[in-house]
Design a protein that fits this description.
The chain has 109 residues and is an alpha+beta fold. The chain has one helix and five strands. The protein is elongated, with a radius of gyration of 24 Å.
């Protein structure tokens, strides 16, 4: 099968577009990964800050993506003023306003 010069140009252009799309998809994926990492860091930081009155020292376990509207984290650690007692609290992060709300103290066994 013989191709004419015009057909070769179209095939080459198609391959260039396909390669460009592949590169764009990889870049978008990397940007998306970075954005999710930034989201998780913000949820953790704001939830830990909101929990300072409840905990002597706290750690946050962040749901990697949250729900459609909210980021979520489980905050755990020793209770402030009663360090021998470990507690947990649920923190909810509004993805639109970027504000957090902390639930009440949950006892741990």
């Amino acid at each position: 099968m013989q191709r004419k010069k015009g057909q070769l140009v179209v095939v080459a252009a198609g391959l260039a577009v396909a390669a460009g799309l592949g590169s764009f998809i990889l870049e978008a994926s990397a940007a998306s990964d970075a954005a999710w990492e930034e989201f998780r860091a913000d949820v953790s930081e704001k939830c830990l800050e909101a929990s300072e009155d409840l905990f002597a020292e706290a750690s946050a376990t962040v749901d990697p993506f949250g729900s459609d509207s909210y980021g979520m984290a489980l905050i755990e650690g020793p209770a402030k003023g009663a360090e021998e007692t470990r507690i947990s609290a649920i923190c909810v992060y509004d993805k639109e306003s970027m504000e957090v709300e902390l639930g009440g103290e949950l006892p741990r066994s």
